[in-house]
TrEMBL record:
GO molecular function terms listed in the Swiss-Prot or TrEMBL record: acetate kinase activity
Protein's name according to its UniProt entry: Acetate kinase
Self-association state and partner proteins as the record states: Homodimer.
Species in which this protein is naturally found: Microcoleus asticus IPMA8
Binding residues annotated for Mg(2+), in chain numbering: N7, E390
Main location: cytoplasm
Annotated residues for binding of ATP: K14, H214, L215, G216, N217, G218, D289, M290, R291, G337, V338, G339, E340, N341
Binding residue positions for substrate: R98
Catalysed reactions listed for this entry: acetate + ATP = acetyl phosphate + ADP
Amino acid sequence: MKILVLNAGSSSQKSCLYELNDVLPDRPLQPLWEAQIDWTHQQGIAELKVKTAKGDRLEEEFTSDSRKAAISRMLETLWRGKTQIINDLKEIDIVGHRVVHGGQDYQQSTLISPDVKEAIARLSLFAPVHNPANLEGIEALEKILPNVPQVAVFDTAFHAQLPPAAFVYPGPYEWLENGIRRYGFHGISHQYCARRAAQLLNRDLTDLRLISCHLGNGCSLAAIRGGVSVDTTMGFTPVEGLMMGSRSGSIDPGIIIHLLRRSDLTSEKLDNILNRNSGLKGISGVSSDMRQIGDAIAQGNERAQLALDIYIHRLRAGIGAMLASLGGLDALIFTAGVGENSPVVRGAACEAFGFIGLKLDGEKNQHSPVDEDIATVDSAARVLVIHTQEDWEIARECWKLYSHL
């Protein structure tokens, strides 16, 4: 079975092709083909990078004002040119899409139908950056592969079993009736990391209490008990929770009221401030990238140091909140760009939890660990660095659905 995965961002498009047999493997397979389109560097120019499991590579730039046209060009490299790995697109059996927001109605991966597409479009109100891009990818594939089933794998689905105390906001009850509630995000990553943690620990997932720290440009924590998300930091939108690369995370809502009363701010300007010019970027004035923050700190930049200090303070507070929701901890997981690559962040986060017996092995922490336990032997809880593989998790969901068609 050949499974095509599309993972659309606001300014990028990732895709890969997996081949699975009748038995779903425990460990991620290497994709036969991987491609990425990036629109961030030049207006109207798409940068395409493709690589195959055999080692063939392609890099090119082309004019693109249409995501659908760009996806078509990307998929051509599957069956034409030096990165060809299939003879015909008809060899693809099923297509899986990451869809950021599934709302209250879609609490598991779902075969795409006109009703599902309508819901994804409607939920763009809650995820205006991502859901429209997800929908464009779906519609592009409908034209290219009209008879191939497509699956929506929702980022919110993993958090569908949050208890009401965790997902209801303490505003007027009418908010809840109008769909204003905590949804949580990064669910595909948290789900993958929870299962991978159980494998690494040689434990049954249903017996584990885990805190998953997805720390990338966007950041969220999930408290996972028995494989189920029982608490998380992102909420109605991906702005809530931890300090992030360019997002503020949680702030006093009174600040928004104060600014609206005393300035000419519009909702669009506020959105730009909170999503694109806050967080590490807003405080440091340097960058949203933790690596550049580190470089600036090394050069004595005090604002960069302040940005890191706030980031760590809020990360520790978030982990503490998740710990309280779980009532104990078997393993703390670090994943995504910062989580996987910043020993400084991991070390500072863990240092605060020595009082519960959490102990980090400093040497292991420094050595770019991948899918590894970096806690000391006598630590009261394990500390895992896991390379998140959202595309593989999407492929697994497709395999499970396809097996029941």
